[in-house]
Amino acid sequence: MRPEPDQPQDEEKQIMTTETFPAIGHIYEASFGDLAFRLQFDSDGSTMRFTSADAPDFGSAQAVTYRAVGIRSGVFMVTWTEADGTTVTHVEDFENGAVHTRSCGQTLSIA
User: Fold this and answer.
1) CA 13, 20, 94, 89 torsion-angle sign
2) Is residue 4 assigned to a domain?
């Protein structure tokens, strides 16, 4: 990717890395076909709790430490590892209200 002629390369890199992840302090529902989850992003900026969308609350939710990296304005790659060793990656597009997901279990098969 090349910067536009009037935009220095350092400025472009700074825009991509300094935007605040908008999910912090919020709860979202993410649906992936027949699977749906509620995601609660704690205000500490590193803890996320998730549970089934039909759960009454977050009482039985699993807490994970996540990392969010800006891809472009309003789009973030979010990754974490669950208690059973499953690694999950989301591309969360806040501009379009879309989440794309992939997970990889201990057998290294990608779902």
Assistant:
1) positive
2) no
* Number of structural domains in the chain: 1
Q: Name the token pair of 101.
A: 């997901």
Instruction: Please provide residue 54's backbone torsions phi and psi, each rounded to the nearest 5 degrees.
Output: -95, 5
Instruction: Tell me the pTM.
Output: 0.76
Tens digits of residue pLDDT in 40-92: 999 999 999 999 999 999 888 999 999 999 999 999 999 999 999 999 999 99
Tokens 């060793």, residue located: 85
Residue 108 DSSP class: -
> Position of tokens 């779902």?
111
Q: 93: closest CA among 35, 7, 28? A: 28
Residue 109 within a domain:
no
- Rounded Cα gap, residues 58 and 43, in angstroms: 15
